[in-house]
Amino acid sequence: MSTRRFSSLARQVATACRRSAPRAFSAKPNTQVRGVKTLKFADTTEIVYERSDYPKEKLAKIFAKDVFAVIGYGTQGMAQSLNMKDNGLKVVIGVRKNGASWKDAIKDGWVPGETLFSIEEACEKGTVVMNLLSDAGQKDAWPTIKPYLKKGKTLYFSHGFGVIFSDQTGIIPPKDIDVILAAPKGSGQTVRSLFLEGRGINSSIAVYQDVSGEAKERAIALGVAIGSGYLYETTFKKEVLSDLTGERGVLMGGIQGMFKAQYDVLRAKGHSPSEAFNETVEEATQSLYPLIAKNGMDWMYAVCSTTARRGAIDWAPEFYTATKPVFERLYESVENGTETRRTLTENARPDYRQRLEAELKEIADQEMWRAGKTVRSLRPENQ
Ligand SMILES: NC(=O)c1ccc[n+]([C@@H]2O[C@H](COP(=O)([O-])OP(=O)(O)OC[C@H]3O[C@@H](n4cnc5c(N)ncnc54)[C@H](OP(=O)(O)O)[C@@H]3O)[C@@H](O)[C@H]2O)c1
């Protein structure tokens, strides 16, 4: 999922995470033992690539001649570059000089003229150009980046957006370079914090162009180098379609819609804000979702009361029927390019940041989330 982009709120979160995480340069990530595996996911057999097959020594060998130019220092640029650096690889950062990212990179120890450069300078130095600008920024910056993508280089993305919707972005890579993807399934803050804990995010990998004959191997190795614990295979197209659907659906858009609908019904029927919030959000995030994460939905149902279980089993099909057409419309909107077009148009507006701030404030000001502040303050660990 790609939670994204630049609001000052997002920056505050990024800064807070950077502050709370141990400094990058003193980190000693543990190495978990895992391997390449053919596994059954339900009834389908898939291959997954795991970190133990790509220890630091192997990464050093595969990438002995490479310099990684990480273009963009948002949440993914920050996490992936620091993890690669901690994995012993040669990394330089390329961002707009004196912009917010430039300053963030300096705070994290990147040195102007040594490891921190303009986008053009970094692209010149990099043998692997890692395009981690925002997706709208990738469209703008493509004419700047493209001339540096000379034969033998590798172009890397963490999203299939730019290349698959090239009719909207103009991103058509030169034919004589490898084009690969590793897409962490989580925010950059998680990519970094899991790495520092010796754990690893799950990511997908894909190859769009394989000129060297080594693109897949390099995509897997790079996926490990940026901090993944395991990687599953996809294509650029499937990655972007599933990712855009997921974040608009269950991961973010859907969950806000469902939470608010239930909260509003409870409030309209005379329940207090604390009761409505506890029955809608707090119990979900604090008690039940962690149970789903641990052992699946049936297990969560099994450890709940018989009353709760009966009702959940009865009502789940009703919600399925109500929401499936919405998911179908959503997927179609992603597939036919409506969602990417809207993203590019909206994010290119000069007042984009102010508008985003206003939209996020509107959510923060909803009674449900204002009530949530008080509920969270009551958690014993927050007192
Ligand atoms: N965030 C996620 O959870 C996530 C997860 C998986 C994959 N991804 C993918 O990873 C990539 C990076 O995402 P992100 O969330 O890290 O992005 P982000 O935080 O929005 O990154 C913003 C970066 O892009 C730069 N930028 C924006 N517009 C620009 C322009 N017109 N010219 C030059 N630089 C520009 C910003 O520089 P300034 O500071 O100078 O403005 C900043 O360094 C995207 O493809 C995204 O889809 C993201």
TrEMBL record:
Transmembrane segments: none
Annotated SUPFAM superfamilies: 6-phosphogluconate dehydrogenase C-terminal domain-like (SSF48179), NAD(P)-binding Rossmann-fold domains (SSF51735)
EC numbers: 1.1.1.86
Binding residues for Mg(2+) 2: D243, E279, E283
Gene3D superfamilies: N-(1-d-carboxylethyl)-l-norvaline Dehydrogenase, domain 2, NAD(P)-binding Rossmann-like Domain
Enzyme class: oxidoreductase
Cofactors: Mg(2+)
GO cellular component: mitochondrial matrix
GO aspect biological process, one term: L-valine biosynthetic process
Top-level lineage group: Eukaryota
Pathway participation: Amino-acid biosynthesis; L-valine biosynthesis; L-valine from pyruvate: step 2/4; Amino-acid biosynthesis; L-isoleucine biosynthesis; L-isoleucine from 2-oxobutanoate: step 2/4
Entries under Pfam families matching the protein: KARI_C, KARI_N
Family: Belongs to the ketol-acid reductoisomerase family.
NCBIfam families: ilvC
Protein name as annotated: ketol-acid reductoisomerase (NADP(+))
